[in-house]
Amino acid sequence: MRYYPVFLDLVDQPCVVLGDGKFANEKGASLREAGAAVRVIPSREYRPGDLAGARLVVDASEDPDINRLSWAEAEAAGILINVVDRPAQCRFIAPAIVRRDPLLIAISTSGESPYLASALRARIERWLGREWGPFVAVVGNVRRQLRARGMPIPEQTRVYRRIINSDVRNLLRRGRADDAAHLAVAIGQAGPTGPGRVALVGAGPGDLDLLTFKARELLADADYVLHDALIAPETLALCGPDARLEDVGKRAGHDNPSQQAITSRLIELARAGHAVVRLKGGDPFVFGRGGEELADLVSEGIEVVVVPGITAALAAPAAAGIPVTLRGVASSLAITTAQGDGSLDRLGELALAADTLVVLMPRSNLAEVAATLARAVGGSRAAAVISNATLPNQQSVTGPLERIARIADQAAIGTPATLVVGDVVAAAPTLAVLPNSTVDGGFG
Question: Nearest CA to 343 among 309, 372, 311, 316?
Answer without folding.
Answer: 372
